[in-house]
Each structure stands twice: as structure tokens, then as C-alpha cells.
Amino acid sequence: MFYREAGDFKTSYEQDSQTFPIKFDRFRYYAVLAIAFLVVPFVINDYWANAILLPFLIYAIAAIGLNILVGYAGQVSLGTGGFMAVGAYACYKFMTMMPEVSMFVHVLLAGGMTAIVCVVFGLPSLRIKGFYLAVATLAAQFFLVWLFNRVPWFYNYSASGQISAPERDVFGILITGPNAPAWATYMFSLIFLTLCALVARNLTRGTIGRSWMAIRDMDIAAEIIGVNPLKAKLTAFAVSGFFIGISGALFFSVYLGAVEVGEAFGITKSFLVLFMVIIGGLGSIFGSFAGAAFLVLLPVVLKVVGVDVLGWPTDIVAHFQLVIVGALIIVFLIVEPHGLAQLWRVAKEKLRLWPFPH
Amino acid sequence: MKDMQDGYTTADGRKIGGVVMEMKNITLRFGGVVAIKDISFDIREGEIRAIIGPNGAGKSSMLNVISGFYVPQEGEVWFHGEPRPQMRPYEVAQQGIARTFQNIALFEGMSVLDNVMTGRLSYMKSGLFSQALWKGKAEAEEVANREVAEKIIDFLEIQHIRKTPVARLPYGLKKRVELARALAAEPKLLLLDEPMAGMNVEEKEDMSRFILDVNDEFGTTIALIEHDMGVVMDLSDRVVVMDYGKKIGDGTPDEVRNNQAVIDAYLGVSSD
């Protein structure tokens, strides 16, 4: 009833190509932003930050990054965990080498470093695609984890082989380390997520996004009508790497605080982010949010229901959790292969007509 | 007619200009198979040039040579009076050669508008950072190119579907969107690979009208492959006939129609 295009006229091409062309969408977007920035920081506590909000924000950045590569440019990647590790270790090195510089700079530099590494491992995509490319990126995953395990320079020769984030602040407010307040870590991650989502949206609705999608949908035809495949693929790897690097840096410095590379950034991480992208919806920014929310929230919900409501033992619930998440993923892919984003689109199309479907 | 360096005048009074593209002794082999054997012909400015021939004659291969997708083993492609160095297909596209495909090669996951805008990629030069912020050059460029794209969309009468994902469109419309995407590049030379394949009479008439209109309004030089002889003879100014990779005829539709080799290739020759 409120969701109407009627009367919402566009008189310029700028208006027509904006991110939320429908007025209702636009206001809802402003409302979500306002709540996220102005309300949540005042009510947040440590449990909410560490169990739900931080992982959601950080995984959403990673999912946006991977979605650009897989969903928009059509280049399959199983190296997300490895690339997140690059972001984490780059961030760690920058933090220890330049302690006086702002955390914002460290995280951005870590993203840039990951972009470079991602482009290097993206070079095979110029010759191979599909499953073969997936295997090539899988090699990146294992190689990077091995590298960070075996070369002590990366973890500053610490005895445990772990890296742990020293205390760093932005404008005098602690962001990393055990004493960082929940609202500060939340705001820090939220700012990055907002910027990443805006940049991703701008890129995907413009020229670069079109050349990515052209390569995804039909690479030979794309080249014949004027898409430079080298440029399109490598920019996709670079932009994707930049986002994934940022998420890796945040995951290490803001969320976990201390990291052992094989545990935190193993192959399971690659699959987790890939599941988020597939369940959320390939080729959709909203889908990245939805997928991250789904896979972060579901275990929490199951745990609350199992332990607190039904009173089952914790270990049984933990096992059930795996079974149920796995089953739900399968059900989801059968019912709606295009993910949560497609369900959302269908719902919106229905809403446009509701309650008068004719 | 051939000796006239500056072109000729067609039967319906259109002025045809100088040579835009010239194929010189092109030979293309795939291993032992000779797809194109020593073929030469030219395409003149403003004309509609047809390439015809039975299945497997090498017509599509010829188009792929022109658009840079195949590299011939022998021979040269001359474009605007100079030999074209070997280049990648996207560089050829940037030189002003656009094409459509025999089996529709649209980007199915994108809307009609995005497909047409993809045709204008060669004109969009803004950098990554400008695009990431959607400010300055990127935004101005988007709007300017959108205007051109909308003109093409108007011209081909596909305004009502501009926001529709291509995957949802029927075949005939897809063919038209593909033509729109090629036209959006404002090509100097437009290559059409069987623009009317699989269409009914009415759709063929529509498409023929669009091709003539494109030639007439934008002055675009067109080279097309088509199997429907009626269409070819009505549309084109000059026709190249190929058979088994060789050129067996070249001239106006009337000349080609009466060429004995062409009649043999199409109707067959008795073996005794």
C-alpha cells in the first residue's frame, strides 16, 4: 500500500539511475542508516557487539567483496580465507611498524595490500575459468595460510606464532585491544561497511559494473563489443580484494584481537563467505547483507532456542546447529536458487500491486 | 562500376562513397580445414553489403576475421585505407566496428538499458575512483552516454522494455536489443550475422525496415550475412557469394542472381 512507484516521476537520468529509485525504499534506507548510526551505539553491549553485530558487519564487507568477484564478474574464488588473512597480517604489520598512524589508515592500507595480492592470484583468470579457476584460487588459499605460518617475519617472531592486536585508537578512542568499548568497535566497523557498500553500489551501477557483468554473462561477446577482458577481470579482483582485505583486517584487529592463521582464515572461512554470497544472492549488494545476516544470526538463534528455551545440553545443540544450518542451505538452494535477494525482489514486485493485484 | 574510385550511385539514387574496408587475399585455416581461401572484396562507405552462401561456406568466419576474433594466416584487412595491424577484438570494437551475433549473444543477467549502455563502453573513460564516488566525470559521462543510448532505444522502438532483464524477452525483441547494443557504439561499420534467422515474415519485415533506416538515417555502412534470398536481394547494394570458403560471385543483386556459378552452388549441378 505504501510501496508505490505511481506518481514518483523521474525527470532526469541522474534521478533514474540513483541507488533507490523508489521513494519508499529511499526513506527506509535513511531510516536504517539513522538507527544504525544514532540509536544502536547507545544501546549496544558487549554480548550484542561480539556475538552478533561485529561478525555481521565484518562478514558483510567480505560478502560484498566476494560478491563483486563471483556474482558480478563471474570469477569463482575459493581463496577468500587466504585473502582475509592477507588483510589481517598486513594490518598487523602496519600497526606494529607505524604505531602513531590512525587505524583508519592501517585498515585502508591493508585493503590495498590485499588488492595487490588478489590481482596477482587473479592473473590465471585471464586463461582459465569456472572450476579450473576455483582450483587455482584454492591454491592461493593454501599457499597464503602456509606462508603466514612459516615465515616468522609476518608474526613478528612471536613465540606462539599468533598475531595479537596492540591497542590503537582513533581520535583518542580505543578501537582495538581488550579495553576497546563495544560501541567504538561497532561504529568503526559500521563506517567501513557503509563506505564499502556505497562504493560497491556505485561501481556496479556504472561502466565498470557493466563490463564485469558482460564478462560474467558472455565473455567472448563482451570482448567483441569492446570490453577489455584483462582490465575487467583484474579490476574485479582488485576491488574484491580491497573489500576482503578490509574485512580481514577488521576481523583480526577489532573482532578477534588475536589470530592464529590456520584456525581463523582456513578453507572453512572461504566456504562460509561463499555460502553467504550464494544464499544471499549472487550479483546483489543487498544479498551480501542478507547472506551475512542469515549465517551469522542462524547459529545464535538456534543456540538460544536449543539451550535457553528447550534446555538441551550445549554440546548437543552445537552439533544440531551444524546439521540444521547445512540442511537449511540445501533447502534454500532448492527453493530459491537465486538467494534471499531474489525472494526480496519478488516480494517487492508483489508489494507494488498489493492489495489490488489487478 | 569497380573502377570508380570515388564510389557509385545505387539504383535507388543513394551515393556510395569510397572504400571503408578491404579484405585482401584472406586465407583462414583451422588445422587442415580451409575455412576461407584467398578471398578479396571491399566494403564501401554507406552501402549495405551482403555476404551469402550455403551452410559452411565460411561467411561467419569472414565476419569473425573482420571483427578480429580470428586471425587469418594469409592476407590483410585494410581499414580506412591502411592495413590493420593484428589487434584484440575489443581494440577492433574501439575502432568503430560493431556487430551482432548469429546466436543471440546478449548479456542475459542485465537489463535492456544496461545492455545498450555496454555498447557505449568505448566512449566511457572515467577512472575507477571517479566511478567509486559517482561524482565528477563518471556521473557526467553516465548521463551523456545515457542520452545517446536512449536515442537508439527510441529509434528501435524498445522504450517499453528498457528496464526489463533480457532473459525475459521473446526472441524477436532480443534480436532488436542486440541491434540496439551494436548501434549504441555509433559504429563506422556494422556487421550483422543473420539478423533475421528464426523470424517470421512480419518480424523479418520489421527488421529489414530497421536495417534500411539505420543505413538511411545514420549513414552506417553495413555488412550482413543472411540466408533469406528475398531479403538479401531487396536490402543489399552489392553481394559477395561464398561457397566452400571461396568467392564465387561479387556484384549487384541482379548480377549475382544471373551468375552461373552461384546458381550451381545454390541449386546444385547434375553430376553427369
From TrEMBL, chain A:
Compartments where found: Cell membrane
Coiled coil, from the record: none
Keywords: Cell membrane, Membrane, Transmembrane, Transmembrane helix
Residues annotated as transmembrane: 27-44, 50-69, 76-95, 101-123, 130-148, 183-200, 236-259, 271-296, 316-335
Domain of life, source organism: Bacteria
One Pfam family it belongs to: BPD_transp_2
Keyword hit for ATP-binding: no
Keyword Membrane: yes
Membrane topology annotation: Multi-pass membrane protein
UniProt cross-references to PANTHER family, sorted A to Z: ABC TRANSPORTER PERMEASE PROTEIN, HIGH-AFFINITY BRANCHED-CHAIN AMINO ACID TRANSPORT SYSTEM PERMEASE
Protein name as catalogued: Branched-chain amino acid ABC transporter permease
